[in-house]
Structures are given as structure tokens and as C-alpha cells.
Amino acid sequence: MPNNTPRPVIVWFRDDLRLSDHPALHQAAASGGLLICIYVFDEDSAQLRSPQARPLGGASRWWLAQSLRALAASLEKRGARLILRRGPAAAIIAELARQVDASAVHWNEIEIAPHRAVADDLAEALSVAGIDHHRHRGDLLASPAEVRTKEGRGLRVFTPFWRRVLGLGDPPKLLPAPKTLSAAQGPSGDQLDSWMLEPTEPDWAGGLRESWTPGEGAAQDNLTAFLDALPGYTEGRDRPDCAATSRLSPHLRFGEISPRQVWYAARFAAAERPAIAGDIDKFLSELGWREFCRHLLHDHPDLAERNLQASFDAFPWITDAAALHAWQRGCTGYPIVDAGMRELWRTGVMHNRVRMVVASFLVKHLLIDWRCGEQWFWDTLVDADAGSNPANWQWVAGSGADAAPYFRVFNPILQGEKFDPAGDYVRRWVPELASLPAKFIHQPWTATPFELAAAGVTLGGNYPEPIIDHRVGRERALAAYAKTRQH
DNA sequence: TTTTGAGTTGTTCGA
DNA sequence: GTCGAACAACTCAAA
């Protein structure tokens, strides 16, 4: 006698913690089966235990926990449930699929080699078990296969790369969030707290909570508010003392919003307001950089490990634990650098302009290997992305694709005066300097003892002396780069 | 195959 | 104070 109960359909959530424009969820819901939604916290698959797939950093773990709560809540609102499991994803999902006699498993692809490899394992296990699987398009505007040179290589210069992506036209149309979901009587899962994603003793996440609301709803709100305030983005985006950036990066990182959604929202805003077309193009090109870095990672899975330009393998990096520590804690004596590093520690992000300044300082003034900086960012950024983080560090160091020329050494005083002219950004994150006049805020050592005393600043006391003289650091960097170029 | 033009984000120096 | 040149040479993409 035939069983009329529809068989369940599994949706495997990954870096796509949203309901709208979610191809896997959309298809699964449309297929009419009863849904089982699952997220697997996977630090156990062999493919994810290599240098090419590092465990999440502390800040990212915190974000993940909040984002999963938000996703679970919005699934429940629509009648479904999020099941949490921990362990090797392929084995766990294949086993679940057999247990519940699933008719199919759906997921969105992650175009990162180790994640693809895990998905390949699952696909194989499901095929053996005779269960359908559907791999849906991932969170890229274009697939790496679509953007190749005539010789079949990936593009390594941004401008031609982005022209090619733009030439492909609009990405696939957006998919609406399913209005209601029919959930299967699902098996049980883990309690989120048992994963210990959030810090307890000490609880250092206070600054993250103050700064962010993870989840799809907040991501959409941020996007709308940002596009409303977009005029002037092209200049404003470089000003850490102004709130001109989109603040979408961690939402994109965890797939709470898709790049396609950002793309269409921006294009719609441009159509409505032709006057801001230039600002829109500039903003979309930032999405292009995310895309570029991910394509680069696709072609170079060891991007976080290995210099893209092999000539840098001989670079004379210095091991200096004390200097690295001073940089990490925001105690270099350069206010703009220290402000950035403290913003990062407190909020899990750093303004883009300041990221370049602190990165240049670590790599060029201190001659510390870019991988040390990349790893620190990986641990402390809520938007730490497997593509963007190493690609941009390599860009600053000069070892990357389309890299900055060696002689581009950011002057931390000049950068501060140019992009934080009144010193508001420094005052916010380095409060011990808050009473200094703007004239000295980016170079407190040039103030007289009287002026320092009046502002309550003691150099070498409550604020450090510069750990290296700018001119000395610059000359030393240029000399080191000159040596590398001879190879 | 060869050639050509171009390449995210800067700083310093001297006229 | 402002402005242009120098800071190198190399790789990439496309014609």
C-alpha cells in the first residue's frame, strides 16, 4: 500500500543564512516536500582541517551564533525549524537523509576549494544511497568559469576583470523568500550554546553587541539606509570620521544578504536617481573587489599561505614579537594606526581606508610578514573573508595580484591629516588623546610639553612614543624592497 | 607571436 | 602653497 505522506526534503544552510534570494531553500520549498533545515558546524571534515580552510576566528564565531539565532527565528515564523548539528558535514547530512528517507538534499555552492570538496563528498554519499541532490548557484555574481582570459586563465588585474563581469549583464533574478514553509517532524539537534561560539570568561563581545545586529533583517535595513544616504559616497567612503560606508561586509560574509540583492538594489537606486550614478558605480566596484578576491582564491587556494609573486618568498621579514604586539593592541604611537587597531578590537571591523594604513604600517614600517597581520585580522574581524582578507593583505604587501607599487608607503601622519582632518576618529578610539588640538592629534610628539600637559597626555606614560620614526621606517622598507627586486 | 597600453587607494622633492 | 616629476620595472590583457 503506497504511503501518501510526502518524503522530507533537506536544505543544508551554509554561508547563506537568509531566506530571501536563497536558491536552495526556494527550490526545496517549491518541490512540495516537507522541509528539514539544517546547519552543520563543521571543524571536523578532513578538507576543512588544512591551512587552506582555517577555523573561524573569535569574532566570526560570535557573529555566527547571533546569525543562527536570527535565522532560526525567521524560519520558525514561517513554520519551519533550524536543526543544529556539529561534526563532519557530509557524513552527518548523508546519515540524516537516510534516517528520514529524504527525497532530496539542496544546498548553495561555496566556490572555495575545501568547501567544494566537502560538498563533493556529500554528493557522492547521497548518490550511493540513491538520494537526489541539487547544488545551487552560490554567492558570486559570476562563476570563475565564466571569467577567463583567452588562454583560460583567471584575470589578475582588477579593471579588466570587472569590465568582464559587468559585460555579462545582470545576474540571475532575485528569488523571493518563501511565505510559508511546511516542516517535517524533524529529528532533534544541538543546543547552540553547547557549541561555545560566544566568549564567556571574559566576555569580550560587549563592543560587538553595541556595534552590530547580525541577521537578514538588519542586513536589509542597513542596505536601505545606506542607499538613501549614498550621495557623496565616492569621497565620503575614504573618511573614517564619517559614516559613509555600507557596513554590509559581515552580512555578506555570512550570506545574510546576497551580492545579487545588493546589485539589484543599487541598480534600482541608480535608475531612480541618475545624479548618483557615479557613486553607485563606485559602490558596485567594491562588490567587484569582493568578487575579484574570491575568484583569485578559487584559482589560488593557498592565497593566505603563499605569495602570489614568488619573488617575495625571499623578502627579509623581521620577527619582532614586541612590535607585533604593540600593533595588535593599538600602541604604536601613531594615532591613526592605534585608532584603527582599537576600533577593530572593539567592534570587529575597521574602516577601509584605515585598514590600508595599518596594514602598510605593519608590513612596511615594521617589516613584519603580511601573514601575521592577515591572521590577526582573521581572528578579530567579523567580516573576515577567505578571499578578501589574504588578497588585500597581499595587495598592500606588494606580493599580490595587481599589487601596490613598492614605493607606496603610507605616511600615517599624512593619512590621518588628510582623511581625519579634525581628529574625530582618533579622539573616539584613542580617548587619552581626545583633548589634543587638531594640529597635534596625528603627531602628538610635536606638541610642546606644556601643550601635552594641558591635554593630559604623557608620551611614554599614558600614550606611547612612536615605536619607529616614519622616515627611518620608510627608508628601511624601501631598502628591503630594493633587495627583493634584485632577485 | 609580438606589440602596446595600462595598472584602486601614495609620498617626497624641488621648481 | 601648489604642482609635476620621480620613485622601477613588470605583468597582464587584448589587439
Descriptive notes:
The chain has 487 residues and is mainly α. The protein has 3 domains: 131 residues, HUPs (Rossmann fold, 3-Layer(aba) Sandwich); 115 residues, Alpha Horseshoe (Serine Threonine Protein Phosphatase 5, Tetratricopeptide repeat), CATH 1.25.40.80; 176 residues, DNA Cyclobutane Dipyrimidine Photolyase, subunit A, domain 3 (Orthogonal Bundle), CATH 1.10.579. Strands 3-2-1-4-5 form a 5-stranded parallel sheet, with helices on both faces. Strand 4, helix 4 and strand 5 form a beta-alpha-beta unit. The longest helix has 23 residues. The model has no long low-confidence stretch (mean pLDDT 96). The structure holds a DNA duplex (15 and 15 nucleotides).
Give the overall silhouette: globular
SSE string: EHEHEHEHEHHHHHHHHHHHHHHHHH
Q: What's the helical proportion of residues?
A: 40-55%
Structural class: mainly alpha
Strand content: 5-15%
Gyration radius, rounded:
24 Å
